[in-house]
Amino acid sequence: MESNAEITRENYKSYVFEKMPKSSHWKNMIWAFLIGGTICAIGQAFIYLYSLWFNAQDASVLASATLVFLAALLTGFGVYDSIGRFAGAGSTIPITGFSNAVVSPALEFRAEGYVYGVGAKMFLVAGPVIVNGVTISVVVALITLLFGLGG
To answer: For 105-119, what is each residue's pLDDT tens digit?
Structure first.
C-alpha cells in the first residue's frame, strides 16, 4: 500500500510524458500540406485538361467527378488509406476525403451483403455530413429568400 502512496499526480504526469510517443507536428504539417496540395494540383490539372473540350463550369464539374471517382477507386484498392496514414489531414481534402468516407464503410460491411451491408452502411460516416449540409443550405436559402439577399 505504501508504494501507492508514493505516486502523486505530478509523478504520474511526468511518467506519462516520458512514455508518450513524441509527435513531430512540423513533419506532419509539411506532409499534410504537400499531399493536400498535390491532390488540389491534380484537380486543377483535370480542370485545365477538360477545359480543352468543355466550358469552365463543365470542366470544373468533370474534374470534381473525376477526383471523387479516383478517390473511391483508390479506397477500394486500399491505396487511399495508405495515403491517409502517411499524409494525415492532407488526405482529407473535402471532395476526395468525402468519397473515401462513403466508400470505406461500404467496403468494411460488404460481407453482410449489398443491401444490409454496402447499402445500409455506405453513409455511416458521411450521412451526418450530408444531412447537415442539406439542412444548412435550406436554412441559408430561406434566410436569403426572406431578407432579399439573393440580388
So the answer is: 777 766 666 666 666
